[in-house]
Amino acid sequence: MKTGTFASPEARERYFAAYRLAMALCPAPDEVSDVPTSFGTTRVYRFGHGVPLVLLPGLSATSAGWGAELGRYARDNAVYAVDTLGEPGHSVQTAPIRNAVDRGRWLDEVLAGLGLDLAHLVGASSGGWHVCAAAVHAPERIASISLIDPTGVTVGFGFGVVWRAALASLIRRDRAWRWFLRWAGGLDPERPDVRLVLAGIREYRAHLPPQLPFGEALREVRVPTLALFGGRNVVHDGVKAADRMRELVPHAEVELWPESGHRLDATEHVLAFVRR
């Protein structure tokens, strides 16, 4: 299995021009680390001090995808924002990530490299899948998990998102992906963080394992769990996803936000859960 890489040195330069613009809208980090793991180095930005929260972004969103939320999370916490290894960003993959076991091991090694014996993990969209991979396969350093409309965890992607993503991949034009991101998440393609996602799609060649639902393996999750789902979701069936989470992780605090889509403004909700 191959590893993710930029299409060319020129593609890398174009991508990081967009990356710098998106990161300029985030608070200035207190520390920047490149954490070595068995799968490559992982870029992590730390903001603030206090109880450790580790943030995993949605697909190709990088740490910049959290934007101003980083400051809100860091009011009373040490926030560690991660550029997901194997996706575009400052993390550099050197070995393949083949499945959920590898993904969980990678995240555990990141926590160890940061010197975190216990941390609260927060994952948005596909970042929620990465968090669950760690909670199932490498839970020793995890204090709690918060999942913000996690994709691929309890149910698969909806048919609509699959065929639209396939069509955009075939067309390979920015306008096709702009149309997809606007439809899937209500995203403004002129925002710097969204333009960064588009740059990643255009300039980076990812080789990632499929994000398949965990099924009965989720019953292994023992840590406190918050799971939030949007009821007006086009990415997956939020109602079914929430019901399945309640079934497989009975101790989880599961909420369906009936009027919300895939993007949830959940910062204060997550912080209240972590404080509890």
TrEMBL record:
Q: Transmembrane stretches, by residue range?
A: none
Q: Which SUPFAM superfamilies match?
A: alpha/beta-Hydrolases
AB hydrolase-1 domain segment(s): 52-168
Pfam families, per database record: Abhydrolase_1 (PF00561)
One MF annotation (Gene Ontology) recorded for this entry: catalytic activity
InterPro entries hit by this protein:
AB_hydrolase_1 (IPR000073), AB_hydrolase_fold (IPR029058)
Q: What is this protein called?
A: Pimeloyl-ACP methyl ester carboxylesterase
- Record the organism: Saccharothrix tamanrassetensis
